[in-house]
């Protein structure tokens, strides 16, 4: 599950970068 959390957190960061 840790890997899944890391994956989700990376997706959030990518989305934030796109929005900026």
What keywords describe this structure?
20 residues; mainly alpha; 1 helix
Describe this structure in words.
The protein is mainly α and 20 residues long. It has one helix spanning 2-19. The mean pLDDT is 83. Helices cover 90% and strands 0% of the residues. The protein has one helix and no strands. It starts with a helix and ends with a helix.
Describe the secondary structure blueprint for this structure:
Layout: H1 2-19
Give the structure's gist in a few sentences.
By secondary structure, the protein is mostly helical.
Radius of gyration: 9 Å
Continuous helix count:
1
Count of beta strands: 0
Distance between the termini: 29 Å
Which sheet architecture does the biggest sheet show? none
Helix fraction, binned, reads: over 70%
**Overall average residue pLDDT:** 83
How does the helix and strand content classify structurally?
mainly alpha
